[in-house]
Design brief:
single chain, three-stranded antiparallel sheet, 2 helices, oxidoreductase
């Protein structure tokens, strides 16, 4: 299932940005996130700060998020915010919705603090550098 979802997202990113899917490689970290309103224990738990994925993770060229829960139904807060000079653009998570974007400085973003409930998502990221590629995750 994970490989199928990754391939489908990879195809859509390639189509949207006009590149060959064969030039996109899965990269790390690809991760599942569960965010609620508990206090952060370390700075790594402070997900709400503005950041650029390419700076934060290094290998990211394209970032995608597959949402597994619904904004305002399963959790409050937790919306994804692109921080633009003119005006911010906000994505409201919905289970099954995929958002994707280039990972460079053109896409400074943050996630609002979750006020109640739990926000679930999977981050699946791609690189154009085969040296930074990883294999699809497997269950052991």
């Amino acid at each position: 299932l994970c490989s199928d979802v990754r391939q489908r997202i990879q195809q859509r990113i390639a189509q949207a940005f006009g590149i060959s899917p064969s030039l996109l490689y899965l990269t790390k970290p690809t991760f599942f996130s569960r965010i609620n309103n508990t206090e952060a224990k370390t700075t790594h738990d402070e997900y709400w700060h503005p950041h650029i994925d390419k700076v934060t993770y290094g290998s990211f060229d394209y970032t995608s998020l597959l949402y597994l829960s619904d904004y305002a139904e399963d959790f409050g807060g937790g919306r994804f915010v692109f921080m633009d000079t003119d005006s911010n653009k906000t994505v409201e998570p919905q289970a099954g919705r995929v958002s994707f974007f280039t990972s460079g400085s053109e896409n400074l973003h943050r996630v609002e603090k979750v006020r109640w409930g739990t926000r679930y998502a999977i981050t699946i990221s791609f690189t154009c550098n085969p040296d930074h590629s990883i294999e699809d995750p497997v269950l052991t």
